[in-house]
Amino acid sequence: MTVLNDVAQVSARLSGGRGCVAELRGIRARALAGPGGEATAAQHARGKLTARERIGLLLDPESFCEVGQLRRHRATGFGLEAKRPYTDGVVTGWGTVEGRTVFVYAHDFRIFGGALGEAHAAKIHKIMDMAIAAGAPLVSLNDGAGARIQEGVCALAGYGGIFQRNTRASGVIPQISVMLGPCAGGAAYSPALTDFVFMVRDTSQMFITGPDVVRAVTGEEVTHNGLGGAGVHAETSGVCHFAYDDEETCLAEVRYLLSLLPPNNRQFPPRVRCADPHTRRSKVLADLVPADGSRPYDMARVVEELVDDGEYLEVHERWARNIICALARLDGQVVGIVANQPQVLAGVLDIGASEKAARFVQMCDAFNIALITLLDVPGFLPGVDQEHGGIIRHGAKLLYAYCNASVPRISLVLRKAYGGAYIVMDSQSIGADLTYAWPANEIAVMGAEGAADVVFRRQIADAEDPEAMRARMVKEYRAELMHPYYAAERGLVDDVIDPAETREVLVRSLAMLQAKNADLPSRKHGNPPQ
Fold this sequence. Notes:
By secondary structure, the protein is α/β, with parallel strands linked by helices.
């Protein structure tokens, strides 16, 4: 077949200019068709789309411009010299999403199982370099079997080039990894270096060592999805930020995320016209949050009430659910929201919540997204597991991220804010630009009951009626040090506001802070806690 094609190409070239154009059209047709209908049918039978079908869903219609379509590998041995398909198993190029430029590469599983070889890697390197130079987001549609074993170490070196560019682009352009098939071994580290990871349930997996290796080394029996499926990474490991049931929904959500992000770190997220009045009062907020600090409620409903049209995109929705991280808009301006979730573990900070929020804060700061922090936190989660797991250094990640952030930062204490967790959650003392509180707030070192047990321990022990004395001391401590205006009187809270006016206060504050310019000390880079 290859000989016949070569003869046809020579004949076309000998027939003049028109023949050359015909030859080009024939080559392009073969490149676009890929390995043929049988391979496409097999891909569809797996519940997966082809690379070009995925790109068609991601980008605006007719906007895709392909780069390196005619690239072919030059490897020999193991029969590779007889198999030299165009594209070499990856489709690369750029297009638009809602009219804004986006670069993309998509593995074609139908060609070499999407495995990465030297030419394949070179195409990805080029498109990554182009994205960085153009200052535009990069989306990778991953569906590959790892390094192309037949090409040996050259394939591994290709991954090294990708990792190096992922790191160089970090914090410069948004990088989004969409997992639409298997991703094993070193290949999994590229998504881990990007800003967001999307996965599709049942068809995508990520792991360093597969089930066969796990079985051989540890004797554990596990399926591909049980080891590294979307459910595992969205709920247990935290590797995956978003998980969906099908590729169409997944790619639609990637488009939505891109609409909330700037093209690069030198620009601001796109602002849209908002029909939701910024002066809208939310009387329901006072009822959503119980005055009793021990009663749970759904913080997501508070977020929904505050943001434009109740719409927001929650990041890591199923992992570390005791804290909410979300992108939303206020009066058309994109904001990042970090909020304790009292429905889960009473909203405490633990290892997972600290890591989740720290990475989100860093992402928002990198891409000029203002931060709003909603506090209702009883402290850090106590326990041997937390201490031995390194809650000190993990909690310090969130502290470092907030202290290092130079974007506009507004914090709001809804109900309680105790101890070190209050300080870490963007208190005024670590650099919040504006700090507000609702009238029922309690800002203190700890709850009144615990404080009374420490401060008045002797009086309670010596009393004729210890319980009555304890109750009196709790009441006294709360009246002296935990009344709603204690922090405001000392300048630790800028204002105590009516919950119904929260949306208007936040919008006006953001408008004032829009031109904020915070100069950081000159340094090569910080050394954040690990």
